[in-house]
Amino acid sequence: MSADIPVVDLEAALADDAPEDLLAAVRAAAERIGIIQIVNHGVPQETVEEFHRGIGRILALPRAEKAKLASPTGHPYRGWRQWPDDFGRLELERFSIAQYDSPEEARAAGLSAENAGLFAHRNVWPPQEPGLRDAAFRYHDALVGVARRVLGLYARVLGVPADTFPLGDPYTTFVVNDYPTWNRTDSPADGEKLLLLEHADSSALTVLHQEGDYAGLQGQRPDGTWEPVPIVPGALQVFTGTLLTNWTEGRLRPGRHRVVAGGSVTRRSSGVFVHPGLDTVVEPLPAFADPDGSDFEPDSVRERADFNVEEYLKVFGRPEQVTAWREGRPYVAELAEATE
Phi/psi of residue 274, each to 5°? Predict the structure, then answer.
């Protein structure tokens, strides 16, 4: 077990008689690195495996079949897409699922007409896996439940009431990342190849499941060095996002992380990014606010959701992808011939 990223028995940590050393380890990790691993979290293993079996069969399809599962409107956070590096070599395949399939479904769930408009770009469900939708949302809902419990745990270790963090009816995004094996030496940088660049999530919490045969996920320590997040059977990883850092006036560190290449089998992760409700404006809560003034600006969840795609494309979008998005048509990145 890593001293920086502890494996936490969630049931034990939430018990009335939780060991003090366990709570101290949770607090240290939340304040120093923003990542914990949890076991005994209450999510049935079959719920996890049912979703991963289905999505695994989709990701194993021929590329020509997967290309049909790209968003018909070019939305980068719907359906399947692949991402090559600057040499056209595959770094990542992704399948993204929105919280609601359509504006009508969002309205039926209680969202305002304005907020429901965020779901105008519909989910893409593979016809090859008719049970995937139900399995995906069972898994999604279970991970949101975990996020609520971890927020209660963080409140406990910080010495504030259990309901301090007002998640309400959360806004979520849901992503599966598939990372290829990497044994190339085309360039000097390939020895330390990054398949996912360093970043912190913009959620309150992100709950992740990872599988593979190497610790490709790494968390950043306060001194800037990197700590591998080992693959622990049955564990879920929980990352503090920047919204929780804002709520706590910087008390809880955002979990900066990256993914490095390696291993002999495809590495896969699936994560649910949990934000407070869309009408929430996040700013330091009274329990943490600095009376001399805050370094954190109010952060609107709805405004963040509105500009998410544009900000992503501004940083990472390639010209042809941006054009496809503007024209409302599918986009599938091209790979170099040698990687097909």
Answer: -105, 120
| Architecture in CATH for domain 7-62+91-310 | Sandwich (2.60)
Residue 234 has pLDDT above 60, yes or no: yes
Nearest residue to 226 (alpha-carbon basis) of 237, 216, 218:
218
**Cβ within 8 Å of residue 220, ≥6 positions away:** 33, 198, 226, 227, 256, 257, 258
| Residue owning tokens 């968390």 | 219
CB contact set of 97 (below 8 Å; sequence gap of 6+)? 78, 123, 136, 140, 174, 175
With 0.90 as the threshold, say if the pTM is over it. Answer: yes
Residue 302 pLDDT exceeds 50: yes
Largest CA distance in the chain: 59
Is the four-CA dihedral 286, 290, 293, 299 of positive or negative sign?
Answer: negative
Strands 35-39 and 7-9: parallel
pLDDT at residue number 185: 61
User: Using CA atoms, how far apart are residues 272 and 90, in angstroms rounded to an integer?
Assistant: 24
